[in-house]
Design brief:
The structure is a single chain. This protein has a 7-stranded parallel β-sheet, with helices on both faces. Strands 8-9 form a two-stranded antiparallel ribbon. It is of the alpha/beta class and about 270 residues long. It has a single domain, classed as NAD(P)-binding Rossmann-like Domain (Rossmann fold, 3-Layer(aba) Sandwich), CATH 3.40.50.720. Strand 4, helix 4 and strand 5 form a beta-alpha-beta unit. It contains 8 helices and 9 strands.
Length: about 270
């Protein structure tokens, strides 16, 4: 079954608007890039894997002037600032920022956890989001237009065994999103947070460094895919200017909470 996007009267056009998507080389980020490009936006793809992003751009078969690829490690504040400062003039006025870059590493209990994994998750999911937002937001305020869309998680609302530090980082994303809305009162800047449930991407492969374990987790139920979350992101971005979608939670039908997934082989 194919999904047909219908432009309704309540849908704000984002044609030619400049969108920055972090973590754009795979999964939800890649899906967001494709969704925004399909609506005519000009998309800056930011990620560490340059070659993967060029591969995606080739697959999209869009004019080169519609996509700009930049190397971006959100953990590195100086690199983030340098990237923003070095954008070509035609790409400087970013109107939509999708803070998508994020990572989970292992599902160990805290008492046996690896502090190096903790540092990477905190540096990416929290500090990276802050670095990019801090670099982009002042210009949005100056121009009086902008939308920040943060990629949260249902792990930002509840905890689960082995989720500890990852859940903590997503709780922080939710707190930052809510605080941003308070800090930006009186401006025209919108802030949204999209909170996915179980999404089948390479996220779990990276988390466990085990393809078979990742495949097993998504067996016996129908999980979300990157396109499902990209639809939610685009929905937030295309509401009328006076409408702000503060939070949107998206879970597969089989999932009722962060800890409850109904698995049934007969339904697959």
């Amino acid at each position: 079954m194919s999904l047909i996007r219908i432009k309704g009267k309540n849908m704000l056009s984002i044609k030619n608007k400049i969108v920055l998507v972090t973590g754009a080389s795979s999964g939800i980020g890649m899906a967001c890039v494709k969704a925004f490009v399909a609506l005519g936006a000009k998309v800056i793809m930011g990620a560490r894997r340059i070659e993967k992003m060029y591969q995606i751009m080739d697959e999209l078969e869009v004019p080169k002037e519609q996509v700009l690829i930049v190397k971006l490690d959100v953990q590195n504040q100086k690199e983030v600032e340098a990237m923003v400062q070095s954008l070509p003039d035609a790409w400087k006025n970013i109107e939509i920022l999708v803070n998508n870059a994020g990572v989970a590493l292992s599902s160990d209990a805290i008492q046996v956890g690896d502090s190096k994994n903790w540092d990477i998750m905190i540096d990416t999911n929290i500090k990276g989001l802050l670095y990019v937002t801090r670099a982009i937001l002042p210009d949005m305020i100056k121009r009086g237009v902008g939308h920040i869309i943060n990629m949260g998680s249902i792990a930002g609302q509840a905890c689960y065994p082995g989720g500890n530090v990852y859940a903590a980082t997503k709780h922080a994303v939710r707190a930052i999103s809510q605080s941003l809305r308070l800090d930006l009162m009186g401006t025209n800047i919108r802030v949204s947070e999209v909170q996915p449930g179980a999404v089948e991407t390479e996220f779990s492969v990276v988390r466990w460094n085990d393809q078979e374990k990742a495949n097993a987790f998504y067996q016996d139920f129908i999980p979300l895919i990157g396109d499902d979350i990209a639809d939610a992101v685009v929905y937030c971005a295309t509401r009328k200017p006076h409408v702000n979608v503060s939070e949107i939670v998206v879970m597969p039908v089989a999932q009722a909470s962060v800890n409850h997934i109904h698995r049934n082989k007969e339904n697959i």
